[in-house]
Design a protein that fits this description.
The protein is an alpha/beta fold. About 40% of the residues lie in helices and about 10% in strands. The protein has helices at about 50-60, 65-75, 80-95, 115-125, 125-135, 140-150, 155-165, 170-185, 190-200, 225-240, 310-315, 360, 390-400, 405-420, 435-440, 455-460, 465-475, 475-480, 495-505, 520-530, 550-560, 590-609, and strands spanning about 245-250, 255, 295-300, 320-325, 335-340, 420-425, 430, 485-490, 510-515, 535-540, 565. Its main location: nucleus.
């Protein structure tokens, strides 16, 4: 992915290369962001669906038969998206029958849900005033009065307008207040002023619910569209609080697990077991609503702020993550978590089996390797490298020292070598890994990223999959799809998933690739053409543009999707820069919710086939 790495000027150093013992595994996470639903979120059933199939679909989602029947009767059976919105509204009213009762401080209810009066108030607005407020054109005093009528205090309303700007729609202001209340109630602090001073440019207005910090508006300022936005937020909130579906702990003894909040990183980090491990786990329980096909596969960094993986797991059907360190598949560490619904029996490794030690992977370095450098594997490969000034300082220090050097010199040199993954290239001389060496360690073909600048090569490779690790988990698909597979590749990057499937010998008959970086798209397209892929590669440049229309068009041409795969950006989940380590509410990491949104649409569309 084309995301900027942590600052490299020394004031903010990325410490994600450290081992489990050197780095804290969990940090407090800001409250769950309630992102606005895109305008095209509703699923339009162009061909219509039978009442019985719609009934089954919504009953499987947990709605009562009475509510489903009522919603279909009022809305008809031609638009499942509208029925879902209506069901969510019924559910909110059912769960909050006393929403008109407000406390003396005019705060929201204890469980942070919107009461039934909140939605009924919307219907009481004058149509003209409502459209003005939704479009952000109402005056300060009008918005202040409206927010007070919605139950917020004058101070809360005034602060939100000053914080977000007077031209922000009313429901984004309400969301802003709600986020601050949630943070305070959960013991956190949502400090907008301090947060903005580090993130926004001069003159920009920060919107915590938009990943690109651009203010969103309700298209057409229609009341139904804005209600849809509220209902999507309520749906996300319910998913966040949803009890975990019974599953099996990865790499454990198979005991059923009912709580996600106490997830701990396993040690060793071997997931369901290594390929050479005789007692590895072969079976697990997958919730019925999560079973494939279509299969899905989600990846992100293992070391995240506290609460991130439980939240991701709740959204992805309560499936527990499989944590795997790539040091068991290559000569470099790469701690990652994976949530997927793939079978776990009959996995196999790519061949040839890669070297798992530095000197086996790079034997020419052996002649220059000092005996006091005890490294056997590299740390996590980064998006940036050590500078020439640093390597020269190391050389000068070693030349001026005895052989072997003093202990303090050894400690300093080893610290820098581990931090920047430096390799010995001569007597007293170290250097960063070359891009082709990083490609080799990550399982990509030589010169996969050649043709772009060195800086861009390191950035793209640092954000990619470790191909051998991912291929081991995807290998079960080879017997399932002997005639080829249709793939939805989200956050494709430089094509780690595609390279893994190709190296497994799995033919890709059609791929819909979604990637925002034009450089990464060029790299993937070039590899696709050079390897003679016979399938069709379609490209979209932003996950926010992937809606039911795009997906239905692909399904009409190719018959559907067999695999949805991707890993959303980890910029706000990893690294030592606490100003940007914001968990799933971060500017980039909140894109995970689009993975969930798109997967949900795919499952619905495929269920209709």
């Amino acid at each position: 992915m084309d995301w900027v790495s942590d600052d490299s000027d020394g004031s903010s150093v990325d410490l994600s290369w450290l081992s489990d013992h050197d780095q804290d595994q969990h940090h407090d996470e800001p409250p769950l962001p309630l992102i606005p639903a895109p305008a095209n979120q509703a699923l339009q059933d162009e061909t219509g669906a039978s009442t019985s199939s719609l009934m089954s679909h919504f009953l499987d989602m947990g709605f009562s038969q009475e509510l489903v029947a009522k919603a279909i009767k009022e809305n008809g059976d031609g638009n499942s998206g509208s029925i879902l919105e209506l069901l969510l509204t019924y559910k909110m009213l059912e769960e909050n029958p006393s929403g008109n009762e407000r406390n003396q401080e005019n705060t929201l209810s204890d469980d942070n849900d919107w009461g039934d009066d909140d939605l009924s108030d919307i219907d009481d607005f004058d149509d003209m005033d409502f459209e003005l407020e939704m479009s952000g054109q109402a005056s300060f005093s009008k918005k202040l009065r409206t927010l007070e009528e919605m139950g917020f205090s004058r101070d809360e309303a005034s602060s939100a307008i000053k914080r977000c700007g007077e031209d922000v729609p009313i429901f984004e202001l309400a969301d802003s207040i709600y986020a601050a209340q949630t943070a305070e109630k959960e013991g956190g602090v949502w400090d907008y002023d301090a947060f903005n001073s580090d993130q926004k440019k001069e003159g920009d207005k920060y919107d915590p619910f938009s990943h690109d910090n651009k203010r969103r508006r309700c298209d057409g300022a229609s009341s139904s569209r804005c209600r849809s936005s509220i209902q999507m937020r309520e749906r996300l909130k319910r998913a966040y609080r949803r009890p975990a579906t019974t599953s099996r702990r990865c790499g454990g003894d198979g005991d059923a697990v009912g709580e996600l909040d106490n997830l701990n990183l396993p040690n060793p980090m071997v997931g369901f077991g290594l390929p050479t491990e005789p007692g590895r786990q072969l079976y697990r329980d997958i919730p019925k609503e999560a079973q494939g096909p279509p299969y899905f596969f989600y990846e992100n960094v293992a070391l995240t702020p506290k609460g991130v993986w439980p939240t991701i797991s709740r959204f992805l059907y309560g499936i527990l993550p499989e944590f795997v360190d790539s040091k068991y598949f290559s000569a470099a560490c790469r701690k990652r978590g994976y949530i997927h619904n793939l079978p776990i029996a009959n996995r196999f490794c790519l061949e040839p089996i890669p070297a798992k030690a530095i000197l086996d992977a790079f034997p020419l370095a052996r002649v220059h390797w000092p005996t006091w450098d005890t490294r056997t594997q590299f740390n996590c490969l980064q998006t940036c490298i050590g500078s020439a000034q640093l390597t020269e300082r190391i050389r000068a220090k070693l030349v001026a020292s005895d052989d072997p050097p003093p202990l303090d010199v050894i400690r300093w040199v080893m610290y820098e070598c581990r931090k920047w993954n430096l390799i010995w290239v001569g007597q007293n001389r170290v250097a960063p890994l070359e891009p082709d060496e990083v490609e080799f360690l990550l399982g990509f073909p030589r010169d996969h990223t050649r043709g772009v600048s060195r800086t861009e090569r390191y950035k793209s490779l640092g954000n990619s999959f470790q191909v051998d690790t991912v291929a081991y988990q995807l290998s079960v698909l080879k017997d399932l799809y002997p005639n080829g597979i249709r793939v939805l590749s989200l956050f494709s990057g430089i094509g780690g998933a595609e390279v893994a499937l190709h190296r497994l010998g799995i033919k890709m008959t059609a791929v819909l690739s979604v990637e925002i970086s034009p450089i990464n798209r060029t790299i993937l397209r070039s590899w696709w053409e050079q390897t003679g892929q016979v399938g069709e590669l379609e490209e979209v440049d932003d996950v926010q543009r992937v809606d039911d229309v795009v997906l239905e068009r692909f399904i009409a041409r190719h018959g559907g999707f067999d695999l949805v795969i991707g890993g959303s950006p980890c910029n706000n989940l990893a690294g030592s820069n606490r100003h940007h380590r914001d968990g799933l509410s971060g500017e980039h990491s909140s894109l995970f919710y689009h993975y969930f949104r798109i997967l949900d649409i795919v499952k619905h569309l495929m269920a209709r086939k």
